[in-house]
Amino acid sequence: xxxxxxxxxxxxxxxxxxxxxxxxxxxxxxxxxxxxxxxxxxxxxxxxxxxxxxxxxxxxxxxxxxxxxxxxxxxxxxxxxxxxxxxxxxxxxxxxxxxxxxxxxxxxxxxxxxxxxxxxxxxxxxxxxxxxxxxxxxxxxxxxxxxxxxxxxxxxxxxxxxxxxxxxxxxxxxxxxxxxxxxxxxxxxxxxxxxxxxxxxxxxxxxxxxxxxxxxxxxxxxxxx
Amino acid sequence: xxxxxxxxxxxxxxxxxxxxxxxxxxxxxxxxxxxxxxxxxxxxxxxxxxxxxxxxxxxxxxxxxxxxxxxxxxxxxxxxxxxxxxxxxxxxxxxxxxxxxxxxxxxxxxxxxxxxxxxxxxxxxxxxxxxxxxxxxxxxxxxxxxxxxxxxxxxxxxxxxxxxxxxxxxxxxxxxxxxxxxxxxxxxxxxxxxxxxxxxxxxxxxxxxxxxxxxxxxxxxxxxxxxxxxxxxxxxxxxxxxxxxxxxxxxxxxxxxxxxxxxxxxxxxxxxxxxxxxxxxxxxxxxxxxxxxxxxxxxxxxx
Lengths: 225, 303
Fold this sequence. Notes:
The complex is a heterodimer of chains A (225) and B (303). Chain A is of the alpha+beta class. Chain A has two domains: 122 residues, CATH 3.30.1330.90; 72 residues, ACT domain (Alpha-Beta Plaits, 2-Layer Sandwich). Chain A is built from seven helices and eleven strands. The mean pLDDT of chain A is 93. Chain B has 303 residues and is mainly α. Chain B: This is L-serine dehydratase. Chain B: Belongs to the iron-sulfur dependent L-serine dehydratase family.
């Protein structure tokens, strides 16, 4: 497949206004964050950076981020009233603004989520036209778009782990589109972010989870599904 | 090998050689490039048109007040006001405003080609369908033609205000709408492309200078003027008037002007209307002032 646009990018996407980077992109980032947490958060601290820091309220990005945490899609008319739905769902949230994080993308948002005892931190960038990049997950450099099928594997930093996982994915007839590996330190925890062109079978995910040296496997199919 | 929508010239040649209507190679493109089938494409276009119609209705029926207060039920006022030119023109303007106001007020729209220009095609298409009593199928074919026009502009210039200014967003939307109108009224390929050329000629140079950075002022009124220009251009083109500068060269001019435009005129809210005294005062009022500014060294560590 080439990088040529779809006619549904020209006549579309169908979305909630006012701005694809401020609403659609932000909804997608929050939906990814919810997937990584694995459930609806009880509490969310949301930090908007740079350009987002000043404009998030006027553009409704605050409602968009809460809507994404409630797992609403980018064309869901409930985005406008997301705060009311959050109250019903017992989701507690707060916002912060940081104006000058010059090393970050102009439209960056950080989500710190908790549910039960579990905590995650996600840094996402809204890159225009509703496209996103998840830049960091729990301090690991991530860089994935969430438009394909994403596999996030946290494992011990041991020899051959990358080749092994790539081989297992290949056996599922999955082509790997992008892959990023980062680690806390030598022989410490490593995190692999793998984007595949097609879906991975539940059985394969179970197998990966059963491996002794694998701590956690998170699977996020196309974020708009 | 399917047409890749690199130029209007190739699109024209392809349709003449293959004896196909303008929308047909757009279908083939999507099938070959994106793996969709014909049914999915027609369904998708039908859905998009339905969302456009719903946005027009919502904007004319429901309360449309934006958080900043700059949008305040303008479309409804226009719909009921004294007629300036003709009832049809009044409806066109009201409908383009309505769909765009829905966008500014966090309603559901079709970004065609972008959210900032999302009132233009709904205003144009619902009005042409009503005046000429066209079946939905004709409008959907017109939407495919509009998509082909956008593909070529994206390829050779830009569709984004941040890259090419307002001319790239509302200018492209108006060009798409104008071409679609001439197609829907049975115009020839020359006439459809002349409508695109003339519309671009009218929209060139328009800067993107949104007050407070919000997609409200002047975006909303420019959706109305874009729709009006699309109609004046369609009228000129359908009469067989020669645009003189060929459509592909008009697109090149759009790209060239966009490239040389200073960044303060490209969605940054630093120039034009955004930089006026009133623009700045509104910006102070609606933008968040309570922002943490990190000491230089902490920028990185804080994450």
